[in-house]
Amino acid sequence: MQDSTAGKSIITQLKKKREASITKFKKKEKDIFDKEKKLIAQKNILSKDEFESKIKELRIEISNYQKERNKTSNNIAKLRIKASTKLISKLTPILEEYSKKNSIRIIIQKKQIVMGTKEDDITKDILELVNQKIKNIKLD
């Protein structure tokens, strides 16, 4: 699946989403770190209550940052699963058609085979068919 055009498209789209989120979170992380430094520098200037209040705000901000980061990570994982499911659902009829056309009763993933002859390997044929019929899968 990863070698197909659609599989590569999925991988590329997920990589872009992951990189965009990493960039976004690095910026937020830097902002929080800068706020922490600034707050530490103001420790002796601020009253104890004001300092405690600002520390509490910073902790809440850190907690929200972590929640948002986890949520984004989970969303990307869900997108990957959803895209794989879409690809498999589009792949199934292609495999059925190929097996009927070539009188094949069973198709097994290559990684599940312990031993077999090269003539039984239909990976290239299937890959060509998939690339012809499924150009890409759009992520939502």
Explain this structure.
With 140 residues, the chain is mainly α. It has one domain. The protein has three helices and no strands. α1 (5-41) packs antiparallel against α2 (48-101). The longest helix has 54 residues, at 48-101. It is rod-shaped, with a radius of gyration of 25 Å.
Q: Can you give me a brief rundown of this structure?
A:
The chain contains 3 helices and no strands.
Mean pLDDT: 88
Radius of gyration: 25 Å
Give the helix tally.
3
Structural class: mainly alpha
Extended strand count: 0
Helix content: over 70%
Largest sheet: none
Structural key phrases:
140 residues, mainly alpha, 3 helices, 73% helix, 0% strand
What topology emerges from the helices and strands here?
Elements: H1 5-41, H2 48-101, H3 123-133
